[in-house]
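Exam revision sheet. Question 4 asks you to relate a sequence to its structure. Input first:
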Amino acid sequence: MKILHITYDYPDVINNKKTLAVKNLIKVSDDVLDNYCISLNRVNVKKDEKIYCFNKKVVISTFGLPKGIFFRYTLKHSIDRIMSTEINLKKMDLVHAHKLTFEGPIAYYLYKKFGIPYIVSIRQTDFKVLKFKPTLKRKYKNILLECKNILLISPWMKAELINHFGIDFNKMIERKINVMPNIVECEKYYFERYDNDKFITIFNMKNDNIKIKNIYKVIDAINKLRNENIIVNLDIIGDGDSRKDIENIIKKFNLQKQITLLGKKKNDEIIKIIKNYKAFILCSYPETFGLVYIEALISGLPIIYSKNTGVDGYFSKCSIGVKVNHNDINEIKNAIIEIKNKHEVYKKNVLQFQSNGNLEMFGNKSVLNKYKKVIENSI
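Answer key, structure tokens:
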């Protein structure tokens, strides 16, 4: 079966710093599917438009204005660029659009022109577009009605679909909805008694990322706890151009003895480092999935995470951490106290979660099996 993946989220020769989620899915399914990929990029200057052709992959950069200005034009221009490539689109058995609002209209166009069935993934970015581009909602409804299957990265997205499209429309598409997480390799688990009394967090300190990661509210919560004579220590792994801002906030609250910046670490180092901590905390919002939460659980750590985003919904029946309203400093404060006071209980729950094989749902084999069934049901 020839599957054409259309994505703006594949690390390529134009931008190799994109998330690995789509790349991992294509890689793990290469042995059972004949995968082709169109990797798209938006550039700010028309003269920077390029097309690179590889064996089964085409990398395209397309001019488009930032912040969704002339959004429809940008998508039409992307379609024209795709049609100009050497990929034989008529021979594809299925198209996978890796987001509803960007890649979805392209898959819909190919369906109308060539009759190629398609499936759609929905990610956090889609809900942002739906919020700020309400005039396009009817178009996205048509895309969801015509597609063969819908892949949600996390369970909380079911309620979000209802919020944007209404319960009546949701009933029309609910048979197509499949929850399929991003891949996190779970072949080896770690579980050790922590060597220190610290919490740990990990994130990229880029300017355009720092607000999403919500670190300032976490620091504020730690400051308020100290004012209540509750001392909480936090180590932060990561680096970027907002590091200085974080340092300044730490100094402002005089928390240099409680909060330490460890800098950037390699992925294979992180697992070895974080297994020794009390718990993992990251109250980011919005968050499509968040591989780092699963990596923390693999390392044996309870987690503090945000409601209605990221991994919320995967652990409803298992008390492996505490979820919070990302905007509520008191909730973050109380979550830290909860983990601090009942740490042994949460640690045992994480161990049980590991032992029961619950983390295997995020592994290569489980995700591939789900994906194969979706593909088979779509063709």
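Marking note for examiners. The first strand starts at residue 2 and ends at 7.
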